[in-house]
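Re: that backbone. Tokens:
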């Protein structure tokens, strides 16, 4: 199972670039299975970064809860209707399975068959001699299982319900007994005994099988043809021949058609709950079209392996990919506050420092290990720093960020001042995205003083587009808060030219009067010199919310 390196939900450039770069670092050091992942599509600005860097986008994974597909055996042993006991039993024995799915010609599951159900074909109704001797098969299948040959074939593919009679008694006793049953249902098994062969043929039985490698005489074969009796030769003795005939019966009547399948995309936890109280031990796994993709056992669902995650640019489970709470968190690399309910059963590497960008921390890992990142990875990390520090103009910027960015500039072969200008001019969310997409871009949820809310942040060059779309954005914030069941949602629109922001709220109360910033309209505030969500806006909102809950 791979180790997935994830940024936060609704990822920004720093989240995606730090995931890509840290996965690259882990691959080069101690985790060769590391893969960069994200739980959202990169925005246009980040796509520009990846294109300039020549780096592949991370794998999009919206939920890391293990699915049945990841647990099932893909090379499933199967059977079909119309197959017989012997060939299915041999297949189960060869592959050491105790149950298998029954599929049709389109690989759709039509039943399941356990070894116990299969054996019941041979041993059921053993208290009733007549039922014990009844075999549902075709003469063609009997010949195949015996490895025999026809002296006279008669509709070998016809489905028959045959009564097997062994000619091992006196001729008179056999003849008297034989005449009690319908001739067309009788299959007579005997050795080189003309005194049994002749009355059986004259009675017009469905078939006569000559055992021990013997053949029926030419005269009796001609008589069999005239009486419509099939004639078969068996290389085995009578006892073995009889057992093989029983093993040539079709499995159809033993198939369990009251069965449960699991969806390949079904979370394992859900699958375990669904199958907890059923007796079926082997569970077919199907795709959206109902076609078999594998099998899983109930025991496999009990304690499945947990997904392995490395978190970058966040440490709160409320901001992590869905299912992270049930995953094994191996490492955290972040520059935000420590919060949420992150726990581990073992010590983990947890790096959390007050720098301007997670990419700064990743790049420092490269430099400390004496590894020079490729130009593409270096540009990715430089982009994360430029994005999160507004090219070193944010109050979150530290000397470490400056030093690391200078180091990266020597490796990525790009004039970062010109690059930063292009970066901020490209990918305006207000110009390119619908309002619902704007308010979900770089969106994080928080809980302060018992109040759950979200803050989204976008960077723009000027506020002209905001004024044109203000009411649509307000409505989108209200819908976001309602859908996520939040007390409120906020959008911070930051102008990278003036180093100031506008704050739009989905709703407010009288307590917002304490915000001490100019109110321009309902739920809209001007925040000069505020550009950082984590260092400036979040503490401000926390202070306001504290007054609400007093």
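Recovered sequence:
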């Amino acid at each position: 199972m791979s180790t997935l390196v994830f940024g936060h939900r609704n990822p920004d450039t720093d989240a995606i670039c730090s995931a890509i770069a840290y996965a690259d670092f882990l691959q080069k050091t101690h985790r060769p299975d590391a893969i960069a992942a994200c739980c959202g599509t990169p925005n246009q600005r980040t796509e520009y970064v990846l294109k300039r860097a020549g780096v592949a986008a991370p794998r999009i994974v919206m939920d890391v809860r293990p699915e049945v597909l990841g647990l099932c055996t893909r090379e499933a042993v199967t059977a079909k209707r119309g197959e017989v006991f012997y060939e299915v039993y041999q297949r189960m024995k060869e592959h050491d399975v105790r149950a298998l799915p029954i599929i049709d010609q389109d690989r759709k599951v039509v039943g399941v068959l356990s070894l116990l159900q299969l054996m019941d074909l041979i041993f059921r109704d053993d208290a009733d001699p007549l039922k014990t001797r009844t075999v549902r098969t075709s003469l063609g299948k009997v010949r195949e299982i015996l490895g025999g040959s026809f002296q006279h074939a008669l509709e070998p593919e016809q489905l028959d319900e045959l009564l097997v009679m062994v000619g091992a008694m006196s001729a008179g006793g056999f003849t008297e007994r034989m005449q009690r049953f319908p001739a067309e249902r009788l299959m007579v098994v005997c050795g080189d005994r003309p005194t049994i062969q002749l009355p059986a043929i004259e009675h017009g039985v469905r078939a006569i099988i000559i055992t021990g490698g013997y053949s029926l005489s030419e005269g009796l074969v001609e008589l069999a043809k005239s009486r419509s009796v099939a004639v078969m030769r068996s290389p085995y003795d009578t006892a073995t021949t009889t057992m093989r005939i029983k093993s040539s019966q079709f499995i159809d009547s033993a198939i369990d058609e009251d069965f449960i399948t699991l969806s390949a995309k079904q979370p394992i936890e859900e699958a375990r709950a669904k199958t907890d109280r059923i007796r079926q031990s082997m569970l077919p796994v199907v795709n959206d079209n109902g076609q078999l993709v594998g099998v899983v056992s109930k025991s496999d669902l009990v304690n499945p392996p947990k997904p392995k995650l490395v978190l970058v640019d966040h440490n709160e489970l409320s901001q992590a990919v869905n299912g992270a709470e049930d995953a094994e968190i191996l490492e955290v690399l972040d520059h935000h506050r420590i919060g949420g309910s992150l726990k581990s059963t073992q010590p983990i590497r947890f790096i959390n420092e007050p720098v301007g960008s997670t990419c700064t921390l990743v790049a420092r890992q490269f430099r400390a290990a004496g590894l020079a990142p490729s130009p593409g990875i270096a540009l990715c990390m430089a982009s994360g720093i430029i994005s999160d520090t507004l090219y070193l103009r944010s109050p979150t910027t530290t000397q470490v960020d400056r030093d690391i960015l200078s180091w990266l500039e020597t490796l990525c072969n790009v004039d970062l001042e010109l690059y930063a200008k292009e970066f901020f001019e490209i990918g305006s969310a207000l110009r390119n995205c619908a309002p619902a997409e704007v308010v979900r871009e770089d969106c994080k949820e928080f809980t302060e003083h018992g109040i759950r809310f979200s803050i989204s942040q976008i960077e723009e060059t000027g506020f002209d587009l905001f004024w044109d779309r203000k009411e649509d954005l307000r409505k989108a914030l209200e819908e976001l808060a309602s859908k996520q069941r939040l007390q409120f949602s906020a959008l911070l629109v930051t102008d990278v030219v003036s180093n100031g922001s506008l704050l739009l709220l989905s709703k407010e109360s009288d307590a917002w009067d304490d915000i001490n910033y100019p109110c321009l309209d309902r739920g809209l505030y001007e925040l000069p010199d505020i550009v950082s969500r984590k260092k400036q806006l979040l503490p401000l909102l926390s202070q306001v919310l504290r007054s609400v809950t007093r």
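The chain has a mean pLDDT of 91. The first helix runs from residue 13 to 28.
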